[in-house]
Design goal:
Strand content: 25-35%
Number of helices: 11
CATH superfamily of the largest domain: Mu homology domain, subdomain B
Number of domains: 3
Oligomer: single chain
CATH class of the largest domain: Mainly Beta
Number of strands: 24
Radius of gyration: 34 Å
Structural class: alpha+beta
Mean pLDDT: 77
């Protein structure tokens, strides 16, 4: 078989991309390309035919229609037509690997990527023994050594930056101490603390001492003593070593759940931002709940537990014996067994009869400006429908790859789930082609995973689908699927309704925040 050129034509007969593999003059190649639309024609039969060919006196055109385009191979008449068709099939699979659609605009945008891929299929007019996954690997020119080098460089730069920040803080601290000593010797205020002297009294005390102001000391005089070693990019730092090891593991050495930690960290940061933004009253109540679940891919529950806490913080001693009237909906929780425990200093009888969190004795008050846990619970989820959201992961294997459908369903329509992140592992050396997506997605090539993100899931979009195709892989390659999200409503209906004095004689103003996060939710 001698392959002269591989070309992509639009249905109107325009050559979009063409790659020749043997030495021909430009005029000859243009003549061959111009002849194809005339030979194919524009009838309905031509657009409905599958693998087909036309011949001239010197060459053969083997082509395949793909929606709005033709994939065309120009070969010699002596070539084996069966080999031509097999090569054409591989070329037609290369196009969707690099282009999301068969539109003319998309083909032109990916022209260079397609030509590089064509070069991997055919060399000097003869087909190479490669498959689609190998073509992707060769064109990516991915280097494990380069990734390791970049990760080492990143870790070293981060360590150097932390060292620089630590030296800067030490420098400022010694500068303040030197300035404090100077003020103490000049104005006789050495008994005062350095922070008070600098921040509130430095200028007035210097002026009232009656002495001429001391000239400003150069920065060099307060430079910290010690070794004058320069910062080194290769400096060791324990935390950085750990992070670098995790990065190497994610590259295939020993894979760890880095993405899960990242998702949980994002939820915790979101909770911190919510807490900072909330207006705090003298009595502040925080309700937190965490979900840990493991769900089999075929349905049901392997394990699912919810851990919740209620903590209170008082700003002044006037409120350190405050009592909290709670809403306790634990008994009404469907599909869950809830076990509640109160703090030993809380009156258990008042909680059992009236759902009030009240101190046993006023002699053991709450400390000021400190979060104190007063109530905690553990709920064991016994029914999959009791989960706030469920995932149906359905991989379908095929001879030319694998099609994966993932559907989420919001079970608790009264809840709003924020920053939902679904992480799907992928087979190595493959790139997914996404056909349908609710929200947005990101393909992380270095980690071989697809990140599906939905900013908000509530009753308005209680279900959604992600559908993608990979050219290789088996069903087990797409598990475990990890799910992370946060909410401002707990799964178990426990919340503060009112704050009052210990004897119940007066209502006290209070503020409250509620946060629900996923510590682990995997479909295995």
């Amino acid at each position: 078989m001698v392959l002269i050129a591989a070309s992509i034509f639009s249905k109107s007969g325009k050559a979009l991309v063409s790659r020749q593999f043997v030495e021909l003059t430009r005029a000859r190649v243009e003549g061959l390309l111009d002849a194809f639309p005339k030979l194919v024609g524009t009838g309905k039969d031509s657009s409905n035919r599958q693998h087909t060919f036309v011949e001239t006196d010197s060459v053969r055109y083997v082509f395949h229609p793909l929606d709005n385009i033709y994939m065309v191979l120009i070969t010699t008449k002596a070539s084996n037509i069966l080999e031509d068709l097999e090569t054409l099939r591989l070329f037609t699979r290369v196009i969707p690997e690099y282009c999301r659609s068969n539109e003319e605009k998309e083909i032109l945008a990916k022209a260079f990527e397609l030509m590089f891929a064509f070069d991997e299929v055919v060399s000097l007019g003869y087909r190479e023994s490669v498959n689609l996954a190998q073509i992707r690997t060769f064109t990516d020119m991915d280097s494990h050594e380069e990734r390791v080098f970049l990760q080492i460089k990143s870790a070293q730069e981060k360590a150097a930056k932390e060292q620089m920040d630590a030296r800067a803080k030490e420098f400022k601290k010694q500068q303040k101490e030197a300035l404090s000593k100077g003020l103490g010797g000049k104005g006789g205020i050495s008994s005062l603390s350095s922070a008070t002297s600098i921040s509130s009294s430095s200028v007035p005390l210097t002026a009232s001492s009656g002495a001429a102001p001391e000239p400003t000391r150069p920065a060099a005089s307060t430079r910290p003593s010690g070794g004058g070693k320069a910062l080194k990019l290769g400096a060791k730092a324990g935390k950085d070593d750990d992070s670098f090891i995790r990065q190497l593991r994610s590259e295939g050495q020993a894979v760890s759940s880095v993405a899960a930690g990242a998702g949980a960290g994002a939820a915790v940061r979101a909770a911190a931002e919510q807490a900072a933004a909330a207006k705090r009253e003298p009595v502040h109540v925080r309700t937190e709940e965490k979900l840990v679940a493991e769900v089999p891919r075929d349905g049901g529950l392997k394990s699912a537990e919810v851990f919740g806490t209620v903590s209170v913080s008082v700003a002044t001693a006037d409120y350190n014996t405050v009592a909290l009237q709670m809403r306790n909906g634990a008994d009404a929780a469907d599909g869950m067994g809830v076990m509640i425990t109160v703090h030993p200093n809380i009156d258990k009888a008042a909680w059992a009869t009236s759902s009030i969190l009240r101190l046993k004795s006023a002699n053991k008050p709450f400390p000021t400006n400190s979060d104190v846990g007063v109530l905690k619970w553990k709920a064991t989820i016994q029914d999959e429908d009791a989960l706030p959201i469920t995932l149906n992961v359905w991989p379908q294997e095929a001879p030319d790859g694998c099609q994966v459908n993932i559907e989420y369903t919001l079970k608790r329509t009264d809840m709003a789930l924020n920053d939902v992140v679904i992480t799907v592992p992928l087979p190595t050396a493959t790139t997914p082609v996404v056909a349908e997506c609710e929200g947005s997605y990101e393909y992380q090539k270095s980690r071989n995973q697809l990140i599906w993100t939905i900013p908000l899931i509530d009753a308005s979009n209680e279900s959604g689908v992600l559908e993608f195709v990979t050219p290789n892989g088996a069903a087990d390659h797409f598990f475990p699927v990890s799910l992370r999200f946060s909410a401002q409503q707990t799964l178990v209906d426990i919340a503060v309704e009112e704050a009052q004095k210990m004897d119940g004689s007066e209502v006290v103003s209070h503020s409250a925040i509620t946060n629900f996060v996923v510590d682990k939710y995997d479909i295995v």
